[in-house]
């Protein structure tokens, strides 16, 4: 009986160890969490970098019927909570360290420009976080990335709703856009690029399983670009998604 008890204990310990090895965030996730930290901090500092008030926002589209100031204050609070969440997860990941970033931001001289800048940043960061979910095998990391992306999507959708009447196209052939980290950290004015704001403060996480992660209009695929575009009308494939913007 003692032998059986000992064997049972060893088996349980082995199962727990296997679970911790395959599921808990590990040192291999440190790059992904560091990348998420840079993205989340970028949005938090954007809202803190240019204090606004109701007068400043008065010339934004539909400002007469939209509570821009109150909602932007709430969005700013959400971004700070997101920073706190990344730090909380990072404290449990071996090898994680905060990136030292000196961000730059687009300047807005009026409320309309500010809202448009916020919309662009929210949508780009949401797409970057969605793309990053393909670079981790940890449920904890994937969950936080998805949750942060969902929050930025909600922020972006609210901002976009005030700017345009049609957001969802009847002829769309793609789900929400998602971008690979190597694309995101590069500079340029294409949708999804944030390198001009990140200023090289963070590197792209390593490829999952040592192979490129391809993002198509509907699905993603590790090491197989044709699988990412299977069933779509897109004839081209790259590590980024050819997707519609909100």
TrEMBL record:
Compositional bias ranges of the Low complexity kind: 227-238
Signal peptide location in the record? 1-18
**Annotated region (Disordered), positions in chain:** 227-246
What are the UniProt keywords, alphabetically? Signal
- Asked if the keyword Signal belongs to this entry, the reply reads yes
Q: Name one Pfam family in it.
A: Ferritin_2
Protein name as annotated? Ferritin-like domain-containing protein
Source organism (scientific name)? Aspergillus cavernicola
